């Protein structure tokens, strides 16, 4: 599929795909006229790249992960690194859940004050 079709199917911009290619995260075949062509698996690969970026991994780390996704194989060092990254993400999730819970408490308290008719203090 061509770059525009991959962008539409993956829900990303063409610019993002070009960036992923520059970073060595995505590989395109080139037609004789120079147009990029991606395999159907490109959609899943782009979605994985986006997930890993959203989890805070830099492109160099994502580049190390992608071959393991394709082959299912990893060195002991990579497995150790994967575990450390997973643990970091778990900590982030706990921290975000804690922040969400505190916001929920603030919302409940502020809603009770608002419903009671008492004025909120000035900011």
Automatic annotation (TrEMBL):
Classification via CDD domains: HTH_MerR-like_sg3
UniProt KW keywords: DNA-binding
Domain HTH merR-type: 1-68
A Pfam family this chain is assigned to: MerR_1
DNA-binding recorded as keyword: yes
Keyword check for Transport: no
GO molecular function annotation: DNA binding; DNA-binding transcription factor activity
SMART domains registered for this protein in UniProt: HTH_MERR (SM00422)
InterPro entries assigned: DNA-bd_dom_put_sf, MerR-type_HTH_dom, MerR_fam
Name of the protein in its database record: DNA-binding transcriptional MerR regulator
